[in-house]
Design goal:
Layout (H helix, E strand, L loop, with lengths): L6 E2 L8 E3 L12 E4 L8 E4 L2 E4 L4 H19 L6 E6 L7 H13 L4 E6 L4 E2 L11 E5 L1 E2 L14 E5 L5 H9 L6 E5 L6 E5 L6 E5 L6 E5 L5 E5 L5 E5 L6 E5 L5 H8 L7 E5 L5 E5 L5 E6 L5 E5 L5 E6 L5 E3 L6 E6 L11 H9 L5 E8 L7 H6 L9 E8 L4 H13 L5 E6 L4 E10 L24 E8 L6 H18 L5 E6 L2 E6 L4
Parallel strand pairs: 3-6, 6-7, 7-9, 8-10, 9-11, 11-12, 12-14, 13-15, 14-16, 15-17, 16-18, 18-19, 19-21, 20-22, 21-23, 22-24, 23-25, 25-26, 26-27, 27-28, 30-31
Antiparallel strand pairs: 1-2, 4-5, 28-29, 29-30, 31-32
């Protein structure tokens, strides 16, 4: 077989190969081909304020010609293609015949991974469904012909269909013609009313999400490990002979207590469970193998009973908390995602604090909110109730709208009431999940004589105010100006000095550089 020389785009970055062989195996090279949308966009002109298509520019014409010739050349040389990714953003008819020819070349080049994304209209897929070499098939906004004949994909392991137009019969034939399929995804497909798969001994994962026409889903796969079902409309769901499922995500309007009870009894190995339903009223989870639970409340749920002695991670998302009982004593991580309540309801109340108290044995607590202000617990509540999770060693906060100045002090003061003896406090920007500010605390053995101070009257141990030895703050907000960072530093230094008895060291690091080191206050 001849040596493969990398081909380069004739336009754009001259150093970006159109495809290239695997290193060290030039004589057996299987290149990856990527054709991005940006390089195939139709140029636009503006005439008299009106936008109209001007047709292909000479560059685009040359590029299309180059792509076609490159694929044709590889086909004639009988060279294989490992991966072909194509994104088509032109109007429905402008490239169809040309794309048909390209796909035909790729299929005949024994392509392994084929990804076709069509952003305009529904593309009538040619004879891809008889490509015996394909192991991964990803289709977006295509139309599968109901009269496509036999489907033979003997090596297909992963199938992903998004915004695909296909009927039940076609999907059934597609899966039946893929005997070693392991991973399936059906997202927002049109015309699909019933999914009924059985005898899929190799299937390990399936995702069925937001298929509005779907009325019935029935799965029978003995080795299925991961199931994701997210439907917004009524859909009858049955999981048969799926006792190897480890991960289950459920979001459907017709999930009932009875349905959950019947199915949980058939899932003895489940370790991850995520549930969201607007109509579910009572939820009882009794799964001894369960390690991670995600529960979203946005509807009529009024009671939760959790019997999961091996549960390690628990996430609750909702505007309000609900009464729940649990024997999950081994929790290592707890996350409370606070959805913004209506304007006439306060972000915090007694019920929410009691909710956190029940989860207080966890060593790591994460709170998420849209703003820092919503995480500030009113002083009236703090003065009348005990701190909820006093065992928490790492408190993490995710907020969408970081604040500065005095609002930082108010936020930190509230967080140190929630967790009165943390080792680490992390504030993250929720948009990009990057650290915004990190606090590291060290303590010395407290000595308390006489009556407990008011800040510790509800605690079995002294709070941070009586034993804090050092504070190191790392400020990662590189975009903040010097004046803003200085104000943050001064506000926090003043706060810690005024609220501790024996602080020995305060450090404020801006971008990894200590801008201030101070000793014990006078």
């Amino acid at each position: 077989m001849p040596k493969v020389t990398p081909h380069y785009w004739p336009y754009g970055d001259s150093h970006t190969p159109l495809y290239e062989g695997e290193k060290g195996n030039d004589h057996l090279a299987r290149p990856s081909l990527k054709m991005p949308l940006s390089l195939l966009a139709v140029p636009q002109t503006y005439v008299g304020g009106q936008q109209e298509k001007s047709g292909y520019s000479e560059k685009v014409k040359g590029l299309l010609y180059f792509c076609g010739k490159s694929l044709e050349s590889r086909h004639k040389q009988r060279l294989t293609i490992r991966e072909f990714i194509f994104t088509h953003g032109l109007d429905k008819w402008s490239l169809n015949s040309r794309v048909d020819c390209w796909i035909n070349y790729v299929v005949k080049s024994d392509v392994k991974k084929l990804s076709l994304h069509f952003a305009a209209g529904y593309y009538d897929l040619p004879s891809v469904l008889v490509a015996k070499s394909i192991t991964v098939l990803i289709l977006r906004q295509c139309k599968l012909d109901a009269n496509c004949g036999d489907i033979n994909l003997p090596f297909l392991k992963k199938l992903s269909l998004s915004y695909v137009d296909a009927d039940d019969k076609t999907i059934q034939k597609l899966v039946a013609g893929s005997p070693v399929i392991e991973d399936m995804k059906f997202l927002k497909c049109h015309g699909l009313k019933s999914i009924k798969f059985s005898g899929l001994i190799k299937a390990k994962s399936i995702e069925v999400e937001l298929n509005d026409d779907l009325e019935r889903l029935e799965l029978e796969a003995s080795n299925l490990c991961r199931v994701v079902i997210s439907q917004t409309k009524q859909c009858e769901i049955n999981l048969l002979s799926s006792n190897n499922v480890r991960m289950l995500t459920l979001s459907a309007p017709n999930i009932t207590d009875k349905w959950l009870h019947n199915h949980f009894s058939q899932l003895p190995l489940i370790e991850y469970l995520s549930i969201y339903s607007r109509t579910l009223e009572r939820l009882k989870i009794s799964i001894h193998s369960l390690k991670t639970l995600y529960l979203m409340h946005w509807g009529s749920l009024i009671e939760v009973d959790i019997d999961t002695p091996n549960l390690c991670k628990f996430t609750y998302c909702g505007r309000n908390v609900i009464p729940f009982s649990s024997n999950a004593l081994a929790l290592s991580e707890v996350t409370y995602q606070m959805l913004k309540p209506p304007l006439d309801i306060a972000p915090w109340n007694v019920e929410k604090i009691e909710f956190l108290t029940k989860l207080g044995k966890s060593k790591q607590l994460t709170l998420t909110s849209t703003s820092a202000k919503d995480l500030v617990i009113p002083k009236k509540l703090r003065d009348s109730l005990p701190s909820p999770p006093y065992n928490v060693k790492q408190l993490k906060v995710e907020i969408s709208q970081p604040r500065t100045g005095q609002e930082i002090v108010e936020l930190v003061d509230s967080l140190l009431w929630i967790s009165p003896l943390p080792e680490i406090l992390i504030i993250l920007h929720r948009i990009n999940m990057e650290p915004w500010m990190t606090f590291k605390f060290s303590y010395k053995k407290p000595i308390l004589e006489g009556e407990k101070p008011s800040c510790c009257k509800f605690l079995p141990i002294p709070c941070w105010r009586h034993c804090l030895k050092s504070v190191m703050i790392e400020n990662f907000r590189m975009s903040a100006d010097e004046e803003t960072q200085k104000k943050d530093e001064e506000s926090l230094e003043k706060y810690f000095h005024e609220n501790t008895e024996s602080l020995e060291s305060f450090q404020f690091l801006a971008g990894g550089i200590a801008s201030n080191v101070s000793g014990q206050k006078n």
